[in-house]
Amino acid sequence: MTSARKADGSPESRAVFGGSGVAGFGEMFVVGIGVALLSLPLVTLAPAFGAGVRHFRAHLDDEPDSIGLLATRGLQAVRSGWWFGTASVVVIALLVLNAIGAAQGVLPGGAVFAIISGGLAVVVAVAMLRTAALWTPGARWIDLWREGRAVVIDDPIGTSLVLVGLGVSATVVWMLPPLIVIAPGLVVVSLVAAERRRAATSSRRAA
User: Fold this and answer.
1) What would the pLDDT profile of 27-81 be if each residue is shown by its tens digit?
2) Sign of the dihedral through C-alpha 68, 73, 76, 78
């Protein structure tokens, strides 16, 4: 939990790892483990990240951020978004299998088809994550998906941040496999950073 306040007593919204950096870093580990546990069925991957992003944003905004609330948010997201998580995982898995099959010569197309399939898998994964980052309790996942697809294209810098987060997480897990339980926290941080940057950009344009 955090306690940063503005002079007038209202909550102070902090940048990612800004202000209380150590607390933010610790919260990243907590969120990473929580998302990893919620993602164990795999088909709950998208809702798990949605809950993780919502929880980390609450931490930065000095809102309630207990572990119990993380679990509650996770269950809320899973109940409403299990179908979206299932569809996303199935599509990504099929594309990855196509890429592997083409690379090994099992499917026609060879390296070109493997690259295309692998690239599409990454695109779908990023779109899934950016959709999940928009989740709030009560939101309809079909509406989030429509907005998430648009965000991927309309916010290329934010999308690049998410790609970097995925790349760093993959590298960390490759170097130290046991850290797979906290790697989701790195992705959550990249998603929050992307959304905060997008919100700030929109505010400047509207001013």
Assistant:
1) 899 999 999 999 999 999 999 999 999 999 999 988 888 899 999 999 999 999 9
2) negative
Structure tokens given for 43: 């088909």
Checking phi first, is residue 20 left (phi over 0); if not, alpha (psi -120 to 50) or beta?
A: beta
Closest CA to 132 of 69, 204, 205, 38: 38
Q: Within the chain, how many helices (H) and strands (E) appear?
A: 7, 0
- Residue 78 tokens, joined: 């899973």
Does residue 17 surpass a pLDDT of 70? no
Beta-bridge mates of residue 11: 5
- Sign of the C-alpha dihedral, residues 206, 163, 31, 146? positive
Residue pLDDT, tens place only, 72-101: 999 999 999 999 999 999 999 999 999 999
Instruction: List all residues 6 or more positions away from 172 whose beta carbon is below 8 Å from its beta carbon.
Output: 179, 183, 186
d(CA 81, CA 152): 19
pTM confidence score: 0.86
Q: In terms of Cα–Cα distance, which of 31, 76, 79 is closest to 55?
A: 31
